[in-house]
């Protein structure tokens, strides 16, 4: 119940206000990790995130904790959000978003069964390249599709 209330309030805020809230709690810059997780069928793991607005589906990940290394952070986030472990974590991409946010993305394989383990996640799913959810950020969709082609 509380999860739905928080989700409704967060999604009702303008994106610029949500960004301002995050930036206010991280005044210098923020760093996040994400992972493109592929299974033996060539499907990618995507999560329906509570705190994302209308484009709620995306790669698993989250913010680094103070002093945490990126690979450790992506492993922790996946364990907390889905209960899976990963192998073969390879750095895929690093970019700056909006001038104050650094995004570090990995590619890895899953070990275990992904289930919802966090209040931050509504659902988990494995998707083939042409069958990803419609309410997914287009740049992340293209990134995943391009990665899966290789």
Radius of gyration: 15 Å
Number of helices: 4
CATH homologous superfamily heading? Nucleoside Triphosphate Pyrophosphohydrolase
The H/E string reads HHEEEEHEEEH
List unreliable stretches of 5+ residues.
none
Q: Quick one: biggest sheet?
A: 4 strands, mixed
Measure the end-to-end span. 42 Å
Q: Which architecture does the CATH hierarchy give at level 2?
A: Alpha-Beta Complex
CATH topology: Nucleoside Triphosphate Pyrophosphohydrolase
Question: Helix amount, in percent?
Answer: 25-40%
**Domain module tally:** 1
Judged by helices, strands and strand pairing, the structural class is alpha+beta
Biggest sheet, strands in spatial order?
4-1-6-5
CATH class category name:
Alpha Beta
Instruction: Give the integer mean of the pLDDT values.
Output: 88
Strand content: 25-35%
| Tally of DSSP β-strands | 7
Shape descriptor: globular
Give your account of this protein's structure:
With 150 residues, the chain is an alpha+beta fold. It has one domain: Nucleoside Triphosphate Pyrophosphohydrolase (Alpha-Beta Complex), CATH 3.90.79. Helices cover 31% and strands 34% of the residues. It has a four-stranded mixed β-sheet, sandwiched between helices. Strands 3-2-7 form a three-stranded antiparallel β-sheet.
List keywords for this structure.
150 residues, alpha+beta, Nucleoside Triphosphate Pyrophosphohydrolase, 4-stranded mixed β-sheet, 4 helices, 7 strands, 34% strand
Write the layout of secondary structure elements.
Elements: H1 2-12, H2 15-25, E1 30-38, E2 44-49, E3 57-58, E4 61-63, H3 70-82, E5 85-97, E6 101-111, E7 121-127, H4 138-149
């Amino acid at each position: 119940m509380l999860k739905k209330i928080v989700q409704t309030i967060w999604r009702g805020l303008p994106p610029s206000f949500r960004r301002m809230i995050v930036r206010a709690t991280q005044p210098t810059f923020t760093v996040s990790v994400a992972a493109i997780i592929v299974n033996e069928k060539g499907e990618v793991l995507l999560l329906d995130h509570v705190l994302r607005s209308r484009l709620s589906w995306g790669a698993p990940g989250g913010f680094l904790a103070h002093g945490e290394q990126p690979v450790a952070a992506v492993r922790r986030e996946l364990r907390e959000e889905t209960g899976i472990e990963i192998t073969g974590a390879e750095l895929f991409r690093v970019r700056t978003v909006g001038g104050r946010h650094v995004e570090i993305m990995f590619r890895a394989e899953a070990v275990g069964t992904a289930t919802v383990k966090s209040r931050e996640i509504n659902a988990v799913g494995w998707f083939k390249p042409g069958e990803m959810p419609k309410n997914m950020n287009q740049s992340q969709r293209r990134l995943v599709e391009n990665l899966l082609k290789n």
